[in-house]
Amino acid sequence: MTKIAIVTGSSRGLGRNTALNIARQGSDVVVTYHSQADAALAVVAEVEALGRKAVALQLDAGNVTTFPAFVERLRQALRDTWQRDSFDHLVNNAGHGDMASIAETSEAQFDALVNVHFKGVFFLTQALLPLMADGGRIVNISSGLTRISYPGFAAYSAVKGAVEVLSVYLAKELGSRGIAVNTVAPGAIETDFLGGAVRDLPDLNKVFADMTTLGRVGVPGDIGPMIASLLGEENRWINAQRIEVSGGQTI
């Protein structure tokens, strides 16, 4: 039976690249997006061009009150597109960046980061567990900034650290269902994160490139294949791990 993977925040950037690499490995994909429906539909078309099935569903990953309605839309999409009542893999990728020192971080900034990167991941996963097939996989996206520090990312890195601990507990509690859970922690990559700062600001790009052993920052194509590989049968024995994909950042 063909596997079905949900990739949150997959209308662009790292999520898009992950969705396409999952399709290249032979799985179908549920693409979620916050507001860019056209971009999500473009990803669906790219997945279909690879010979796989895909649907796009709107999801506000930071608003837990919307999750029951999302689950019902997902349930209907699974029935209509795949004639199934379950999916196999979940990649919790949706997120945003907010750079501010501890002294200057507002409560609103803090709450938004917690809601999207931790509370949302916790309760979306909880809401989806009844639809997840036994033997499935969960990959949560963290950050290289949980291992090293860089001024301005205290709140962001703290919630990503919480996700790393959550992954271990998910692995423990879901092991009886054969569900493996891992964390992938990218280093600095050229995406829309922080408004595209690493990609578009040469000085910032150089700062992170100089911190990286391989001499450059990453691109989505450095990360997406790694995430997709964790869903493959060949990596079935990897569980409860934090895997950094950073080109050797600050070693």
UniProtKB/TrEMBL annotation:
<dbReference type="Pfam" id="PF13561">
    <property type="entry name" value="adh_short_C2"/>
</dbReference>
<comment type="similarity">
    <text>Belongs to the short-chain dehydrogenases/reductases (SDR) family.</text>
</comment>
<dbReference type="InterPro" id="IPR057326">
    <property type="entry name" value="KR_dom"/>
</dbReference>
<dbReference type="InterPro" id="IPR036291">
    <property type="entry name" value="NAD(P)-bd_dom_sf"/>
</dbReference>
<dbReference type="GO" id="GO:0016491">
    <property type="term" value="F:oxidoreductase activity"/>
</dbReference>
<keyword id="KW-0560">Oxidoreductase</keyword>
<keyword id="KW-0521">NADP</keyword>
<protein>
    <submittedName>
        <fullName>NAD(P)-dependent dehydrogenase, short-chain alcohol dehydrogenase family</fullName>
    </submittedName>
</protein>
<feature type="domain" description="Ketoreductase">
    <location>
        <begin position="3"/>
        <end position="192"/>
    </location>
</feature>
<dbReference type="InterPro" id="IPR002347">
    <property type="entry name" value="SDR_fam"/>
</dbReference>
